[in-house]
Amino acid sequence: EAGVAQSPRYKIIEKRQSVAFWCNPISGHATLYWYQQILGQGPKLLIQFQNNGVVDDSQLPKDRFSAERLKGVDSTLKIQPAKLEDSAVYLCASSLDRGEGRAFFGQGTRLTVV
Amino acid sequence: AQKVTQAQTEISVVEKEDVTLDCVYETRDTTYYLFWYKQPPSGELVFLIRRNSFDEQNEISGRYSWNFQKSTSSFNFTITASQVVDSAVYFCALMDNNDMRFGAGTRLTVKP
């Protein structure tokens, strides 16, 4: 079974530039999550999708972050404009359904903002 | 407020030692799930276990065991006879109301 795919693995940008991350969840998984993991900390949920609808984006800095999950499959997370404090690993995860609990994670995209 | 505390930031042991990683949680819900994930240097979070709030049975899986105690709101993880390959960051997580929160993690280093 293929896992959660993310790209790119690494990205370096200058502050105020924009960047986008892509995630392809496990086939058939209805729930998709984007987490931000700052070095030395646990993952923090940014946004949760159920199929192509947003169910929780309470911790997403909406002035600069946006995410979409068209057709309820792949998802993209965008940052525009980036700030230095956005440097982190962005993890995508998927699970069969909300409340199912067991989430499968991708390897993440390490973003460095300089 | 939902919260997960992993008080041990880093632990270092010598191979074959037993080690316990602590996790204390807070939630107002009576129905919730607890998890442990392992994050090796590759970065991917690997699921280890899920426990629901109504099942306080301890669980053993090979060298891994978990002790869930609702009375102290703890869900501790023990690795018996640790190996170098166990070196990783371990995260405890709590899910209630479909909202999952992670602790800050414990970095375990197992030296040969």
**Fraction of residues in β-strands of chain B:** over 45%
Number of strands of chain A: 11
Helices and strands of chain A, in order, run as EEEEEEEEEEE
The sequence of SSEs of chain B as H and E is EEEEEEEEEEEE
Q: Share of helix among residues of chain A?
A: under 10%
Q: Which class do the helix and strand fractions of chain B yield?
A: mainly beta
- What is Rg of chain A? 13 Å
The shape of chain A is globular
Q: What percent of residues of chain B adopt helix (DSSP H or I)? A: under 10%
Largest sheet features of chain A? 7 strands, mixed
Mean pLDDT of chain A: 93
**Which two chains form the greatest contact, residue counts included?**
A-B, 25 and 23 residues
Mean pLDDT across the residues of chain B is 92
Extract low-pLDDT stretches of chain A.
none
Radius of gyration of chain B: 14 Å
Return residue spans of chain B where pLDDT drops below 50 for at least 5 consecutive residues: none
Note down, in words, how this protein is organized.
The complex is a heterodimer of chains A (114) and B (112). Chain A has 114 residues and is mostly beta strands. Chain A has strands at residues 5-7, 10-13, 19-24, 31-37, 44-50, 53-56, 65-68, 75-79, 88-95, 104-105, 109-113. Helices cover 0% and strands 48% of the residues of chain A. In chain A, strands 2, 4, 5, 6, 9, 10 and 11 form a 7-stranded mixed beta sheet that branches. The N and C termini of chain A lie far apart (37 Å). The model of chain A has no long low-confidence stretch (mean pLDDT 93). Chain B is mainly β and 112 residues long. Chain B contains no helices and 12 strands. In chain B, strands 2, 5, 6, 10, 11 and 12 form a 6-stranded mixed beta sheet that branches. The radius of gyration of chain B is 14 Å and the shape is globular.
